[in-house]
Structure formats: structure tokens, C-alpha cells
Amino acid sequence: MRRLEGKVAVVTGAAGALCSVMAESLLRDGARVVLADLNEDGAKSFQNVLAEKGLTETMTVKANVLERASLEAAREKILAQWGRIDILVNGAGGNHPKGTCPAEQFTEGTTLEDSFFGLDLAGFEFVNKLNFIGSLLPSQVFCQAMLKTGGSVINISSMSATQPLTKVAAYSAAKASVENFTRWLAVHLAPVGIRVNAIAPGFFITQQNRFLMLEPDGKTLTPRGQKVINKTPMHRFGDPKELCGALNYLVSDEASFVTGIVIPVDGGFLAYSGV
Ligand SMILES: NC(=O)c1ccc[n+]([C@@H]2O[C@H](COP(=O)([O-])OP(=O)(O)OC[C@H]3O[C@@H](n4cnc5c(N)ncnc54)[C@H](O)[C@@H]3O)[C@@H](O)[C@H]2O)c1
């Protein structure tokens, strides 16, 4: 089914692990897809991979989701080439060691520097900005191109938004902001037919979190990985392709009365208290 025929989708972070899979899925559903990433080489090599599969309705743009001028230049390039923007996937984001603290809890013997008290503010701000402002600013820039036609925005949240994971303080706060902002913007833009929703992925093994979830042999779970699996009723990690059903539904006309929601794709993680 090619539900997105005629639509143009912008995917930020499209060179990344999850968003590359989402971009491919939008293409297979008929959309023309803009692969927008700070890492232009990564976007270009992914474009080549797609072309080898016969998926050629793509363009790449170098875009920094934290820089308005770069996003506006990307928007103008897209409008000059394809004349419209219908879908925005705010995929660029992620965690960074700079915004985390090594200790899960403050117990006897925990040093100040390993705990909340040692969190580097600049690191916290970096992660918070990338995930939150990195969704807000592209929405400001790209949604302007949807004001006459309507459109659909997808933000990418995380389990951490509602159940903050230990250590990742900045990331959790940022994703909570992303979910709140999703509802706020959905209300604000509803009269002009722009729908705003989010997907909250559970746990997917990617370059960013592999070292946290798996031992160097690539198979054995780390203690943290084991905790994740124990708390996931389906007892496995997700496959990035499993995000695409929710994505393609939310951006399609089948979801024409759906706005301001967050769909968890998590194997039941959020539903389970762990007991
Ligand atoms: N991997 C997971 O298990 C998981 C779980 C929940 C949520 N998420 C979220 O999914 C999204 C994608 O995650 P991923 O694992 O695919 O990440 P990734 O690190 O594989 O990809 C992120 C991409 O964003 C790009 N990027 C970084 N900074 C940028 C900037 N300033 N401007 C433009 N592009 C920039 C990078 O070049 C990279 O291509 C993120 O928002 C992440 O927080 C991931």
C-alpha cells in the first residue's frame, strides 16, 4: 500500500540507526524523502544504499537541528526542488555521556562527582538542547511550509520520558519535554490541519547504546541490559523495523483525527511495573 504518494517527508537524523529505517519505510509507502542530517556524508552513503534497492525519490541536505539558518536553507532547497513539505520526523537526538552520571543511586560510598552533584551543566545542556530544542526548532522552520496544506509532525520520545532511567538525567528531562511539547504544538496547530504526534521507542540495540546493553562479545547481556529485558514483557529488544507501523500510520490519512498522542513501541515496557 502506497499511502503517502505525492507527499514530501523530511527526516532529521536520517543517517542514524532508527531514522534511516524510518526514512526507508516512508519511501516504501510512496513519499519522497529528504534525508536531513548534520552528517552529510552519512546521509549521502545512506542515499546510495537506498538507490541500490531502487528507492531513488530522495534528496540529502546538511542540516543542524540547532541552527535556524541551516534549517531555513534546507527548507528553501526542498521547496525549490519538490515544492512542498508534508511530513516532518524529528529524529535527530540521543543521549551522550556528557549528560549522564555514573552512579545509579546515591548510596554510602558514592562520591559527589559520580552522582547528581557532579553532573556537568554544560553536558546536561548539550543533551537537553539536542533532544528538545532539536525538535522544536525544525518544527518552527518546516511547519511554516505546511500552513496552507496541513501536515504531520512526528517527534521521537523515549521510555525515559515517563519512567526516567537511572544515570541519564538530561536525556530523561529532554524527552519529557518532547512529549509535553508534542501535546502543546498539537493544540496550537490543529486549526491549520497540522497534526503533531510522537513515538516512544522502547529498547533497540544501536551504536549509541550497544556498550550499555551488551558485553563486547555482542551477545551476552550486561547487568543493565538484563534489567531492561526483565522489565520488557516480550523479553527481547525491538527491531527498528517495528517502529515503522506506528510511524506510517500516524503520518497517513488513516490518522486524520489523531493528534497530540504518544505511541509507545516498547514490547510492553511501559505497561509493566516490574513486579
Ligand atoms: N536507539 C534507541 O534504542 C532509542 C530508544 C528510544 C529513543 N531513541 C531516539 O530515537 C532517535 C534516533 O536515535 P538513533 O539511535 O537512531 O540515533 P543515532 O545516533 O543512530 O542517529 C542520530 C542521527 O542524528 C544526527 N545528528 C546528531 N546531531 C545532529 C544535529 N545537531 N543536527 C542534525 N542531525 C544531527 C547524527 O549525525 C545521526 O545521524 C533519537 O531521538 C533517540 O533519542 C532511540
Quick summary of this structure?
By secondary structure, this protein is α/β, with parallel strands linked by helices. It has helices at 17-28, 40-52, 68-82, 121-142, 169-189, 210-213, 223-231, 244-251; strands at residues 8-12, 32-37, 58-62, 87-90, 151-156, 194-201, 262-265.
**Ligands present:** nicotinamide-adenine-dinucleotide
* Residue runs with pLDDT of under 50 for 5 or more positions: none
CATH topology of the largest domain, which one?
Answer: Rossmann fold
The strand line-up of the biggest sheet is 3-2-1-4-5-6-7
The CATH top-level class label of the largest domain: Alpha Beta
Number of helices: 8
If you average the pLDDT, what whole number results?
96
Span from first to last CA? 41 Å
Beta-strand segment tally: 7
Helix share, percent: 25-40%
Overall number of domains: 2
Q: In this structure, how is the largest beta sheet organized?
A: 7 strands, parallel
Tell me the Rg in angstroms.
Answer: 19 Å
The geometry reads as globular
Q: What's the helix-strand series? A: EHEHEHEHEHEHHHE
* CATH evolutionary superfamily of the largest domain: NAD(P)-binding Rossmann-like Domain
Estimate the strand proportion: 5-15%
What class, by secondary structure content? alpha/beta
**What is the name of the CATH architecture of the largest domain?**
3-Layer(aba) Sandwich
